[in-house]
Amino acid sequence: MQPAWFAPARFPDHALLDSGEGEKLERFGAVVLVRPDPQALWRRRLDARAWRAADLAFVRESDRGGRWEPKRGVDGAGLERGWDVAFDSAHFRIRPTPFKHVGLFPEQAANWRWMEGLLSELGHGARVLNLFGYTGAASVLAARAGAEVTHVDASRSVLTWTQENARLSGLGEEALRVVLDDALAFARREARRGARYHGILLDPPHYGRGPKGEKWQFEQDLAPLLEACAALLAERAFLVLSSYAIGYSALSFANLLGELEGGTVEAGELVLAEEGADARLLPCGFCARWRRGLGA
Asked: Which of 64, 74, 79, 211 has a CA-to-CA distance to 194 between 20 and 30 Å?
């Protein structure tokens, strides 16, 4: 019996070249990176020379983060300022951070494709709410698909990054409604206002802080957030819940979304597939999708 997982979407500007021994070797555009990944418990398939050839390798210095070490002859400072990758006609800025992240989660491309299909059914002007929106890849793609997008995050710096991605993707200043706020507080306020959305995207962290010091704790706050989101869903609507590095399963997510009225739920893992024949799948977190009045 195989675990349930969502098929990765084609993303030519990203490739998982190899993984194993707690790390992954991947390409964003023309730049090859080595990053930690605790899910990669197996042995590497490529030799040490292939791994040493990476342009940048993340070196962990403490539990709080680390630094990026460039290959000899590579302009490490230039790469840390960032470069662009494309997904269809959208463009996103990759920028290595001290926390090993680079501003984009390529495994989410499976959800982007699913969302785009449902937005096509809904037609121009569907309303999408992206909570914990990070640097806005899903928001940009939803806007390019004709949706009216509200993008919420508690970090001013990632909202600036979102606006940069929107500009790179040819969207005007008014294409996204970008909001600095706590996700739960915003959802509850929108519910009191009687707002309705055709799509809601949730990718919450395990722990976080809102812009006014609000505390987010996954175990305590996810169920109240979904309750608030339930009041925001239009008659025909979808919702995506995903998260990484938490001690829960896809079944837990499926049970939560099963409490939403009148929809169907699918759940599993988001994955990246290594390049080449007999590609291994690298698990990248759990995901559940809910839809009502949409899809087959």
From this structure: 211
Give the burial string for 130-158 (b: 16+ CB within 10 Å, else e). Answer: bbbbbbbbbbbbbbbbebbbbbbbbbeeb
Confidence of residue 1 (pLDDT cuts 50, 70, 90): very low
Q: Would the pLDDT of 143 be above 90?
A: yes
Q: Is the dihedral of CA 76, 80, 81, 82 positive or negative?
A: positive
Task: Look up the pTM and report it.
Answer: 0.95
User: Whole-angstrom Cα distance, residue 166 to residue 151?
Assistant: 12
Query: Residue 275, Cβ neighbours under 10 Å: how many?
Result: 13
Q: Could you give all domains of the chain from N- to C-terminal order, each with its CATH number?
A: 5-94 (2.60.40.1180), 106-292 (3.40.50.150)
How far is CA 40 from each of CA 8, 49, 101, 271, rounded to the nearest angstrom?
Answer: 17, 19, 16, 12
User: Of 200, 205, 182, nearest to 260 (Cα)?
Assistant: 200
pLDDT in tens, 35-84: 999 999 999 999 999 999 999 999 998 877 899 999 989 998 899 899 99
Q: Which tokens hold the place of 6?
A: 């969502």
Please give the structure tokens belonging to residue 173. Answer: 């200043």
Angstrom distance (rounded) from CA 95 to CA 97: 6
Residue type, 252: S
Cα-Cα-Cα-Cα torsion 173, 174, 176, 182, nearest 10 degrees, comes to 90
